[in-house]
Design brief:
By secondary structure, this protein is an alpha+beta fold.
Length: 669
């Protein structure tokens, strides 16, 4: 049951209504759809179910009291058993469901198949205190499917004291312990909450070797009194390492390095700092990794921290043609809300998602894997997790994104990282990943798509974003030798550059800008819409000609022509204006975009040149980056980077330089 039973998380744990499958009927293997969707159950949504639950039912962590004449279903994200994943990746072919109850009622065990069809598997009537056991085969879950159980109480309450899914321990490959690698920068409150959560979980503490918190910020954990009792409670199980800001790849690599050289940890779990952990998830990840036939990466899913019943992604892969993340299940989608569409009634959630990588918001990696393939690429913040998953897969270490294991985290839709300084790392690291892993000539469509994105930014008056992208492309051309040397210096350069572009100079409130004035409004007051695909070449040529040649009217320099919300700031809309005030994704700031033809002309020449150079030199760069990859990710290379990037002394705070960690020692890859 949830640690904090609020209405927005209850649908992930328990429901109070029966559900019908949304699966379609079969077509007898003829390849034609005779299907009709099953009739949805009236009111069978998590929202309705959750509202009928008395929160007092959920006062226990591992039990629940079901009121008289009521149904409670555990066919939910955190309580159903993802049978197909255990069938695919482990030797387990039977699991046992054991339920401890008191009171009278029925227990019904259900299963589903990969199409999401619900099938009743077994049932039992309970009338006295005791345990009920179901032995459940996994043989028929080749492509997908879950097990779960519902309970129906009689005239009196029925209490569930606990339930477990277990397997024969002799089938496990190992019984491992783990360390946590959490990297943080100026997010003290999140870190303190997560350390406290880990410190209080005795089951986790039994498996935990060390929680490494790699602090790269200026507001440091050790500056806060709240850390002292947590350090005292955890002792040697908590180690705070202070170093310079060398990004997520630097922070995670430090934690991975420490865990892989401490001589005890079977696994390291990379965790972001700004997450809310369901601690049971870590135990499930470790258990699954123990049972996996071969060592493998086990990732947790990510729920939306601001909308807690919404799952960001069920499983992600890298599109080999575009080198872009994609949803693995064709019918799947980002942002699935379990409060609206429960697990039992959503067919695509029953199909197993086979992935290329898992985000490092929370991901278990065997230390054996780290010692075999090295640490992260020194790429600061983006693509480090995806590239590592692709590299591990090539070396024989697959990844699974494990249902029933999850954390809550801010989703990308609530961030501005496609327009701010982070775009440099998006662009550079994507191209590097293509050079390292693309199986297509000259990276498939990576270069053509990249140039198209450049043109869209220029038409949108996003000149800072475009400047950062151009520097990224030019830095790729410089080769892999600068990656470690510049890992701690590139961000300050990008932030300093932001002060020279209109679209990156922000203010907090709209009334800090001049009044909006538009002398020539849209034709007939219609909103701007995306050009039709058939007209796109002509439309783009006409629009770019205006961007390159036509001087903006003087009035647009004195007053913005429009105030545009972030979600409306599409390239086909912004391209019609000479200036506009645009809000950011977080809704915290605004910037005054202004069209500057001289910027467009200069940047258009640069993007044409860099993409032509990348195209011509692709094969040479590919060979150069691939030859350098082992050295870039080696323990020895990272040891030098750690030692060259100690935590900086803060004037007036650090009297002496005691913050820098000692030079790491350990085996090199």
């Amino acid at each position: 049951m949830p640690l904090a039973p609020t209405p927005d998380v209850i649908p992930l744990y328990i429901e109070s209504q029966a559900a019908r499958s949304g699966a379609q009927t079969g077509s007898f293997g003829l390849g034609t759809a005779t299907a009709e969707s099953a009739e949805p159950a009236a009111g069978a949504t998590g929202t309705t179910g959750a509202s009928q639950l008395d929160l007092e039912e959920l006062s226990a962590r591992h039990g629940v009291e079901v009121p008289p004449q009521s149904l409670r279903s555990f066919g939910t994200y955190f309580n159903a058993f993802p049978a197909s994943y255990w069938r695919r990746w482990t030797p387990v072919r039977e699991v046992t469901l054991t339920i401890a109850t008191s009171g009278r009622g029925q227990i019904i065990v259900y299963r589903s198949n990969a199409r999401g069809a619900i099938q009743r598997h077994d049932m039992a009537i309970v009338s006295r205190p005791g345990e009920t056991r179901f032995d459940l085969p996994l043989t028929a879950f080749g492509d997908g499917g879950w097990y779960w159980f519902d309970v129906i109480s009689g005239p009196d309450p029925l209490t569930i004291h606990g339930a477990q899914w277990t397997a024969d321990a002799s089938a496990a490959r190992t019984e491992g312990t783990f360390s946590i690698a959490m990297t943080t920068m100026n997010k003290v409150s999140y870190c303190l909450d997560n350390i406290e959560l880990i410190s209080k979980d005795t089951d986790l503490r039994e498996k935990l070797d060390v929680m490494y918190v790699v602090d790269q910020g200026t507001d440091r954990l050790n500056d806060h009194d709240e850390i002292e009792p947590l350090q005292a409670a955890m002792g040697e199980q908590l180690q705070i390492i202070e170093q310079g800001n060398i990004g997520g790849s630097g922070g995670f690599s430090r934690g991975m390095y420490e865990a892989s050289t401490n001589g005890s940890s079977t696994y390291v779990i990379n965790c972001d700092d700004d997450i809310d952990i369901e601690p049971e998830s870590l135990l499930r990840m470790i258990t699954f990794a123990d049972f996996a036939r071969t060592p493998m990466l086990v990732g947790a899913h990510m729920f939306d921290l601001n909308n807690r019943s919404v799952l960001h992604a069920f499983g992600e892969s890298v599109d080999p043609w575009a080198i872009q993340p994609k949803v693995t299940i064709p019918e799947g989608r980002l942002g699935h809300d379990f409060a609206v569409e429960p697990l039992r009634s959503t067919p695509w959630l029953h199909r197993r998602a086979d992935v290329d990588y898992n985000g490092w918001w929370t991901c278990l990696i065997p230390t054996e894997t780290v010692r075999a393939i090295g640490l992260s690429l020194p790429v600061f913040i983006k693509w480090d997790d995806a590239e590592y998953g692709l590299r591990a897969k090539k070396a024989g270490y697959p990844t699974v994104s494990m249902p029933g294991a999850a954390v809550w985290h801010i989703t990308w839709t609530d961030k501005n990282d496609a327009l701010d300084w982070q775009i440099y790392f998006h662009e550079r690291n994507r191209i590097i990943t293509a050079l390292l892993h693309s199986v297509y000539e000259r990276g498939g469509k990576v270069l053509t798509e990249s140039q198209g994105i450049d043109v869209k930014h220029l038409m949108s008056m996003q000149y800072y974003t475009e400047a950062a992208r151009l520097i990224a492309q030019e830095d790729v051309l410089r080769g892999p030798g600068v990656l470690h040397d510049e890992i701690g210096t590139k961000l300050p350069e990008l932030r300093a550059m932001a002060q020279t572009y209109d679209d990156s100079l922000t203010k907090a409130d709209a009334d800090q800008f001049p009044e909006v004035r538009m002398h020539k409004p849209p034709r007939k007051g219609r909103a701007f819409s995306a050009p039709r695909r058939s007209m796109l070449p002509l439309w783009t040529a006409k629009t770019m000609a205006r961007q390159l040649i036509a001087a903006p009217p003087e009035s647009s320099a004195a007053h913005p022509q429009a105030a545009i919300a972030h979600q409306d700031a599409k390239w086909w809309t912004l391209s019609h204006y000479d200036s506009a005030v645009v809000s950011n994704a977080e809704g915290t700031k605004l910037a005054w975009y202004r069209r500057r033809p001289e910027q467009v002309r200069s940047m258009l020449v640069r993007t044409a040149r860099t993409h032509l150079d990348l195209y011509r030199q692709w094969n040479r760069l590919r060979d150069e980056y691939r030859a350098a990859a082992e050295g870039l990710t080696s323990f020895a290379a990272w040891e030098r980077t750690f030692s060259e990037n100690p935590a900086p002394v803060r004037p007036g705070i650090d009297d002496v330089d005691t913050a820098a960690p000692s030079t790491p020692e350990g085996a090199s890859a």
